[in-house]
## 1
Amino acid sequence: MTDLVTYVELAGAAAGAGGLGYAKARAPRVYWSLVGMPVTWGRFTWNYNSTMDVCGLTVQPSGFRAFVKRNVARSEVRPVPPKIRRVRPTSTGLRITLRLPAGLEPADIAASTERLRHAFGVRSVTVMETKPGYVELRMTGWDVLNRVKLPRKARPRDLVVPVALREDGTVFERDYRKVPHALTLGANQSGKSMYQRNLIKGLAQLPVALVGIDCKRGVEQNRYASRLSALVTSPDDAGKLIDALVMEMEERFDLLALYGVSDLWELPDQVRPVPLVVLVDEIAELFFVTSKKDEPARDKTVMQLVRLGQMARAVGIYLEVCGQRFGSDLGRGATALRAQLTGRVVHRVNDKQTADMGLGDIAPDAVTAVTTIAPDRPGIAVAGDTTGGWSRIRTPEITPDEAAATCREFAHLVPELPFLAPFRPVGQITVPPMPTTPPMVRPRPVTD
Ligand SMILES: Nc1ncnc2c1ncn2[C@@H]1O[C@H](COP(=O)(O)OP(=O)(O)OP(=O)(O)O)[C@@H](O)[C@H]1O
């Protein structure tokens, strides 16, 4: 009987360990909730004071406080770390709110994140200032960018599209009203199209007009034709479409003047024109010319794009530009246009110079982070913003068919815009299925 109990206990323990091992690999959220979080929380509570001390994140309390609290001389009181105000577990890690003592600033904590990460045995630690005197330590228990799944509540709304996950487990959103124009850069096979795909899938569900410029003969955007109000696939047509957009911008400004407002969102609902998102795939194609006689047309197109970048935000026209490189070597107007595209997402690039082009002017620290993206992790990117902050992000992996299906489902949201009628996509090109085996060559009968 005792033997039987021992066997049952052993089998139970083995099954439990196997289950946890499986959960660690296949369901990291479950593993984190059952094992990782309690262990990390305990470790954090137990080691907090000593860790902050060795990381140099403590300060000597003031003489008055030392006297009031302990009635001893200041020099005899041990230095104190930031006070823990709140510990909040999440499905990906721990959020800890700290009250900074006088003498410490958020940058001091941010400079020690690598040391804290190792001390508390977590995947990553990032620091956010929540209000003056308070910071939030965001600890991630496992590599949330390994297999990305956005939380169910992350849904597109009011020109805000959840596109990716940050390494601290929060959702990276593309908010067109906060950051009207953006640039996505990356080498071949770095994940640019996947990023655009996620973006289009989200945008398709919103009441906006989508305009596609894909000078790679429409290979990327043609599949989204059902939800596009316009699609052009050659630099000549792109020039005409961009002219039409500039004219629309001017008409919208006239409307703003008529109502005495300075922004599309201040207009009454019944007269407010629909917001437009212009998706430019492979921007370099708009800059390249093969002969001198094409240069004036190219210069005009670029200049018109720069005008859109400078002014169109106020009238609800937003630019979403994508490319492999975007520097002054592209030609006249390139840096002026890039300066308008303040949202930056840079995937793996082939050289530091390209990383610099993407993030050097807005978040210099992020350039090093881009150069360390491993080639075997496509989709990882560094997203910067104009505040100088940046984060590592990755989009969920979705197929082109999934994004195209969403476009078809929301095709009824394509708004009626007569000025885009000449550029309306003619419909999707149906690609014949590839034969799985090469066609058989029948031997021809030999005739004399
Ligand atoms: N977020 C991601 N998660 C997992 N795999 C990804 C992710 N993003 C991209 N990939 C994979 O990486 C490969 C290249 O992705 P993608 O086509 O988006 O790159 P790209 O930069 O657009 O390449 P190109 O410039 O050559 O068209 C694809 O096989 C894709 O499945």
Note: The CA atoms of residues 165 and 372 lie 18 Å apart.
## 2
Amino acid sequence: MELTLEAVSHAYGDVTVLSDITLGIPEGQIVCIVGPSGCGKSTLLRFLGGLERPDTGQVLQSGPVPEGCLNPLTYVFQDFALLPWRDVAGNISLVLEDHGIRGARAEAIIADVLARTKLSDFHKALPKQLSGGMKQRVAIARALAVNPAVMLLDEPLSALDAQTRELLMDDLVTLWERAPFTAVYVTHNLSEAVRLGHRIVVLSRRPGTIREVVTIDTPLGERRAGDPALEAHQARLWHLMRQEAEAADKELGHV
Ligand SMILES: Nc1ncnc2c1ncn2[C@@H]1O[C@H](COP(=O)(O)OP(=O)(O)OP(=O)(O)O)[C@@H](O)[C@H]1O
């Protein structure tokens, strides 16, 4: 399934948050969204997920969903959003129970997503027994359990330390290489964007408009830290972001 934003604009009260955003999310690609704080990245993700509707413009879904898809659009949040009283398997079974899937069918799905996220040995652990990185793996496993058409990830690694972030980026790349998924990935972190994004959308300061879309052709599995081509992309992104942040600062100075 593909998602398309067509001329999306939105204001909360007097504050225009997004202005004239037109963007395609192609099937099988990870599209990263970066931009200064408050430029409307999370708002855009809520529009894509259908949690809110924009004032003007539209969000279109086209093409079939994957076989066995229970939820076409699924979120992964920064704070994991796990139920503390349910163990790992129980947190995943919750989304299946919502669809009336129990028993052997649920067990098979849970075993599969736990194996894919390297959590099989932890199926009976409670969230409080897990590190931050493992909690986020559970959240990713839970998202995969519904076999979504598009995963919407809102700063999924930003609560984690640098080493754990690296490990989880490797995991996401491995997951994508085994079964390419479609994702929109909001992040502040430009090294995450160049590591995971097939396309990186740079938003301007608020009201967020598309400043530039950077396409990176290097296959995800071949992207290495220190790769000069990736570093050049990252430097370009930082140049754009820095201009926006400086302009936002100057605006504040004139208030
Ligand atoms: N429900 C809401 N009601 C009113 N204002 C809102 C609402 N949601 C977001 N905003 C405002 O819209 C603007 C954009 O918010 P949003 O969270 O989408 O930005 P963001 O780019 O994700 O920010 P950050 O990078 O800081 O997470 C902010 O000024 C925010 O305060």
Note: Strands lie at 2-12, 15-25, 30-34, 56-62, 73-77, 150-154, 182-186, 199-203, 210-215.
## 3
Amino acid sequence: MHFPAPLKSNSVKIMLLGSGELGKEVAIEAQRLGIEVVAVDRYANAPAHQVAHEAHVIDMQNKDEVLDLIRRVNPTYILPEIEAISIDALFEAEKEGFHVIPNAEAVNKTMNRKNIRKFAAEELGLKTSAYRFVSTFEALREAAEAIGYPCVVKPVMSSSGHGQSIARTPEDLEKSWEIAKEARGDASELIVEEFVRFDYEITLLTARNEKETVFCEPIGHEQKDGDYIFSWQPAFMSPEALSKAQTIAKKVTDGLGGRGIFGVELFVKGDEVYFSEVSPRPHDTGMVTLITQSQSEFALHLRAVLGLPLEFTFFTPGASAAYKAKNESVTPIVHVDDKAFSKDSFVRIFGKPESHEGRRMAVLLTMAASETEALAKAKERIGYLDDSAPVTRVVEEHRVESEESCVIKKVFKFIFG
Ligand SMILES: Nc1ncnc2c1ncn2[C@@H]1O[C@H](COP(=O)(O)OP(=O)(O)OP(=O)(O)O)[C@@H](O)[C@H]1O
Ligand SMILES: NCC(=O)N[C@@H]1O[C@H](COP(=O)([O-])[O-])[C@@H](O)[C@H]1O
Ligand SMILES: [Mg+2]
């Protein structure tokens, strides 16, 4: 491939629609290859704005504003980085010949739980939790009765756990209804899901450049309030579960098509693998690849977008811990103890201009001889970043790992290493 210089009439230009911590790392990778970066978000001085050639602040849900900016910037590639973007603008841009990553229809399917669930379960025939869609409280009650308790209630359009709750009894439904309504995005419709008592959950990062598809080592993660707090790589899986996970990821990403990295979220129970959802972009749990791989998920995303080879090396087991702000502040400070900068750990501070309770502001990364050790270090050292907020856990049940599944895991580990 030829790499024209940035800021010229013939530059290769990427436009990030969303400029948070994930976009910031993509922008840095693009800068390393001399690709011109235009970063867009709904607020000023977003993380990727600070490392881009050009920064814009617009209402990303407004079709006209998004389209007008796309036409003015004339990017080679448009990279959606968040879900809350005017999908009509992306469809229109694609019609006008712009290259949306991975493509507008894939963005459309994945931004709405109804579309992706129907696609995965009904079109591709993948195993998922039982589910129903509802838009009235009465229908929510009926769906919960049919699916059984506990069940998980989520707005069809939301991310990072916003608006999500578990109803354990019929009495919880009113609260779940209120939580969902308060969430951002289009909360007019909800999905009610069977609560899957999985042994563990993973993200399988899958990159495709339309010539080849590659998988990263599976990433294990722990969630609090529907948002990730710890991730580690590799996540131990039985060979059968790993093979099923890769088959599902290949089917889903081939079905969505286009170029880029995808975060395929899966629940694993024994050797059964359930498809949960997929992000057509780097995944927050995948920040661990900043320390574990020669090419992080961000570098792989960019390579896939540009149609470059997707070769990389898995360097070392590692883990990540999300640092969440405790307070609201327009002058936020992340206090980091020097010990976080030891030979086997480092920190990435996103530079978000404002904090509010629970907002992810930084990530701590650790490496070790095993993922268990790396995770233990991450859990211990996240305390080196001050006031990391203890948030109450939504999916409390998952903490209780059955003795049986522990024994099975140990046996597999003994046999397969
Ligand atoms: N049906 C379910 N059964 C059991 N646990 C679930 C279920 N749905 C969600 N969870 C738990 O809640 C977490 C968040 O759910 P989900 O990924 O659907 O939300 P999200 O808002 O899209 O989050 P993100 O944007 O961070 O991926 C899951 O990773 C899992 O731990
Ligand atoms: N699970 C999706 C995810 O992690 N997205 C990442 O968080 C940013 C928004 O953060 P903010 O809400 O703090 O502005 C997004 O821009 C993206 O980088
Ligand atoms: Mg998710």
Note: Residues 129, 152, 154, 158-161, 164, 193-196, 201, 223, 226-228, 265, 276-277, 395 surround adenosine-5'-triphosphate (ligand 1) (CB under 6 Å).
